[in-house]
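To illustrate the input format used throughout this study, we show a single complete record. The first block contains the structure-token representation of the backbone; no residue identities are included at this stage. The design step must infer an amino acid for every position from geometry alone.
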């Protein structure tokens, strides 16, 4: 079929057939709908006819010869010319439509419910730190507080509670003393409290503090200068926590190299700075190791169905230190 109207000049209708057809760069369309649908093989670059386009489903590929349809694009089923085929029911914009076959084969994953575990606060660690800070402030602001809480070996023979009160006191003239001990208490204490529990941790701290005071008294020569020297500080108890942490890390298979490095530095400090009671450090460290090992053994036995002997072991450690102090004061006369 040919076009009957032939515009001339620059006003030529771009949809009409040109006078001569030589490798056209743009196909022409007839104004009348095509009655047939000639194939591309029958009319290669000859006189193809194009019908008036209608608007239906998009084809997106090579135009058909005859009555091609160019409709509004739908964003549902992808056309093969657009790339990889999607499963039936899927769209380019999201998951499959509800009720389609794809929605039954590949359901949309639902968000999982998150369980928030509430971590217990290190109440005992914070309480010990608060008591130490309050006592330290009282030493600076109230006269006589330092003398009331400090310990000397000669005083502990008749006032044994000073072994414990001195572990919550610090030097009122050296702020670095309380800062270091409280930092170490917070860094180590909360981990051990979470592992052993609040009651066992409180007992461990007190026993390590008593162990530090006991070691200082045992190593102080009766009648010598140390026998009348005042001692304050939580260093003995803190070193007990270091010892307990060593035991717990070994039990769970963790490396202890970093902790040994910290202990080596602290062991060298008394050699460089005078006035540090290394005896209390050593005593607290030994007691901390012993109590932590006994507690871990008691917990393991309890989990296996046996009796929990935690407080029996702690009581025996305390009794052993009391016996050693009685023997020391008996020998000192």
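Output of the design step:
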């Amino acid at each position: 079929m040919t076009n009957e109207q032939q515009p001339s000049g620059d006003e030529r209708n771009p949809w009409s057939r040109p006078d001569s057809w030589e490798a056209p760069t743009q196909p022409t369309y007839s104004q009348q709908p095509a009655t047939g649908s000639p194939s591309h093989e029958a009319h290669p670059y000859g006189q193809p006819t194009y019908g008036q386009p209608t608007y239906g489903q998009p084809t997106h590929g090579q135009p058909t010869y005859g009555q091609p349809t160019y409709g509004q694009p739908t964003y549902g089923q992808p056309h093969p010319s657009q790339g990889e085929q999607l499963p039936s029911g899927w769209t380019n914009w999201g998951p499959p439509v509800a009720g389609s076959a794809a929605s039954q084969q590949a359901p949309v994953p639902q968000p999982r419910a998150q369980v928030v575990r509430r971590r217990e606060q290190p109440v005992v660690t914070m309480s010990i730190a608060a008591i130490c800070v309050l006592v330290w402030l009282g030493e600076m602001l109230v006269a006589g507080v330092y003398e009331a809480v400090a310990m000397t070996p000669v005083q502990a023979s008749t006032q044994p509670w000073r072994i414990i009160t001195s572990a919550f006191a610090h030097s009122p003239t050296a702020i670095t003393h309380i800062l270091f001990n409280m930092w170490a208490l917070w860094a180590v204490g909360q981990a051990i409290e979470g592992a052993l529990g609040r009651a066992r941790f409180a007992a461990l701290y007190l026993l390590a503090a008593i162990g530090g005071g006991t070691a200082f008294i045992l190593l102080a020569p009766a009648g010598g200068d140390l026998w009348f020297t005042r001692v304050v500080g939580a260093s003995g108890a803190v070193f007990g926590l270091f010892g307990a942490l060593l035991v717990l890390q070994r039990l769970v298979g963790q490396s202890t190299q970093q902790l040994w490095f910290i202990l080596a530095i602290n062991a060298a400090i008394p050699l460089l700075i005078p006035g540090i009671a290394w005896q209390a450090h050593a005593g607290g460290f030994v007691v901390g190791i012993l109590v932590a090992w006994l507690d871990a053994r008691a917990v393991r036995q309890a989990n296996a169905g046996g009796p929990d002997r935690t407080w029996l072991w702690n009581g025996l450690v305390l009794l052993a230190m009391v016996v050693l102090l009685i023997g020391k004061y008996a020998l000192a006369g």
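Structural context for interpreting the output: The two ends are 135 Å apart (CA to CA). The chain has a mean pLDDT of 77.
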